[in-house]
Amino acid sequence: MIEIKNISKSFGTTKVIDNVSFTFEQGKTNLIIGESGSGKTTMLKLMVGLHEIDQGEILYDGLNFPLLGVKQKQEVRKKIGMLFQGGALFDSLTLEENVRFPLDMFTKMTKEEKLERVNFCLEKVQLTNKNNLYPGELSGGMKKRAALARAIANNPKYLFCDEPNSGLDPKTSIVIDNLIQSLTQEFNITTIVITHDMNSVVEIGQNILYVYKGKHWWTGNSQDILKTTNPELVDFVFASGFMKEVFNAVKKKQ
Amino acid sequence: MNLFFHLGRYFILIKRVFSKPEKSSVYFKRIVSEIDNIGISSLPIIAIISFFMGGVITIQSAFGFTSPLVPLYAVGFAARESMLLEFSPTIVCLILAGKIGSNIASEIGTMRITEQIDALEIMGINSSGYLILPKIAAGMLIMPFLIAISMFLGIFGGYVMGIATGACTSYEYIFGIQTFFQPWKLYYSFTKVVTFAFLITSISAYFGYYTKGGALEVGKSSTSAVVYSSIFILIFNFLLTQLFLT
User: Are the Cβ atoms of A50 and B118 closer than 8 angstroms?
Assistant: First the structure.
């Protein structure tokens, strides 16, 4: 479980995150949603320590992450898996080497054990027998799946996904969403997904934080969001005509 | 102010680079790979440049020594001194600053803008140590060998071209390159090379590591890496020469 308590962050005079508190639950897909520029990615970077918070607390199972020393932070980070928006796979390494990377760095596994683990992870993301391909030879969706395989290679306790569906077609998006959800439930991970893809919100949103202008604006799940009357959230969720139709259909059913 | 900001940030980065590696065996493999990347791939260009420069120095020397009081073996002597003291350790290092420096800055810069460095940090890896230490170590290990090859090929190029153009005889050239040889000059030259290797790799890595933005900024970092590496090579060349030869 990860808790954030009253965290704030400013860049110069611009307050990007303003006194946000939230609990990201273990074994659930926790979503941070919001418009572009609302501070979602900054919040994620604060949580993993890529930016420093101005105030507040970030608790990883009770450990206040920003106050930890360098070594203690590294220990927490070893339990983190992260799927970046662009994948962030290492260009000079093959798919197998990319997925094996955290195992090479932090485990004393034998070569055979590592290979077994790599193949297991690649199988999970449906990239079996692609071990020797380089990131440059993969499609966008495959890169995301490969990055997800790397993120789960070292059995993370916490999984962060920064816009896992951006730039993907709807079919591949659903594959990625389902993967994230199944991995979260299977391995009881605390998963945090940043997205503004409404399909993902409806499909996998078990615990949703809506951020508006850097503030905690709304909390709920995928069912609650379709019933919301919060004007800013309604504007965001039903910005597209398609979602409005879904909303009306749900209302009619009720 | 800007200079002090960069100097301060550079030294902080260097301190992080030399902190204890997470896993020495992984770093060792990376050093070997960087030796190939930095060193072996630079060999052809160094060989070609050194051979022809040695030849040109020999012909120019022979052309310049018109006085009957200057013996012809001075051509070999001049070629050896030029190659050993200045051309191989300094000029070749300036050329390497262009080749290796831009390579390092663009590689690390691209890793920065594509979030690969963030990925390393989040995994709990000291990204600066993992990426930069093997490059510095590889540069400092392999560049003396490259420069030794450059010295040999330069002197050999002088011999071949000197004979081919009739600038001097084989006996005169070989006698010339053996005359007044002082071994400590090699110590001076290789001290320069190791220093320049550190400057090229660390300065280039610094510019790459702190790249912000996109492809355009990677290009700018690459250019800055070459420019500042070259400037610092020239400054340290002066300082080391002053230190050793006076």
Answer: yes
Q: A106 touching B, CB under 8 A?
A: yes
- B51-104 pLDDT, tens per residue? 999 999 999 988 888 777 778 888 899 999 999 999 999 999 999 999 999 999
| Beta carbons of A7 and A17 less than 8 angstroms apart | yes
What chain A residue is nearest to B131 in terms of C-alpha separation? A90
**Residue A122 maps to a domain:** no
Question: Distance between CA atoms of A204 and A55, rounded to whole angstroms?
Answer: 31
**Helices B2-17 and B127-165: crossing angle, nearest 10°?**
100
Could you tell me if A33 and A210 are in contact, meaning their C-beta atoms sit under 8 angstroms apart? yes
Residue A129: inside a domain, yes or no? no
What's residue A254's pLDDT?
61
Contact B123 A102 (CB under 8 A): yes
Task: Provide the CB-side half-sphere exposure for B119 (13 A, CA).
Answer: 27
Domain boundaries, position A207 = 2-79+156-253
Tokens representing residue A159 in the block? 């999984």
B19 in Cβ contact with B134 (< 8 Å): no
Closest alpha carbon to A148 in A174, A175, A179, A186 = A179
Q: What is the CA radius of gyration of chain B?
A: 21
Name the residue among A73, A88, A89 with its Cβ closest to that of B118: A88
Domain CATH number, residue A220: 3.40.50.300
* Rounded distance between C-alpha atoms, residue A205 and residue A94, angstroms: 33
**pTM (2 d.p.):** 0.86
Question: Considering only residues 20 to 59 of chain B, which have any Cβ-Cβ distance to chain A shorter than 8 Å?
Answer: 22-23, 26
Report ipTM (2 d.p.).
0.83
CA-angle at A100, arms to A99 and A104, nearest 5°: 145
* Longest CA–CA separation in chain A, Å: 58
Q: Find, among B90, B91, B8, B38, the residue nearest to B204 by Cα.
A: B38
Pick left, alpha or beta for residue A205 (phi over 0 → left; psi -120 to 50 → alpha; otherwise beta). Answer: beta
The answer, yes or no, to whether residue A240 has pLDDT greater than 80, is no
* 3-state SS assignment for residue A148: helix
What is the helix, strand, coil percentage profile of chain B, to 5?
A: 85, 0, 15
- Sign for the CA dihedral angle at B135, A133, B115, B23 comes to negative
**Residue indicated by tokens 């320590």:** A49
The number of folded domains in chain A is 1
Residue A73 belongs to a domain: yes
CB nearest to A80's CB, from B111, B115, B122 = B122
Chain A residue closest in CA terms to B127: A74
Domain membership flag for residue A162: yes
Contact of A148 with A125, CB cutoff 8 Å: yes
Q: At residue B186, what is the residue type?
A: L
Nearest residue to B54 (alpha-carbon basis) of B73, B77, B80? B80
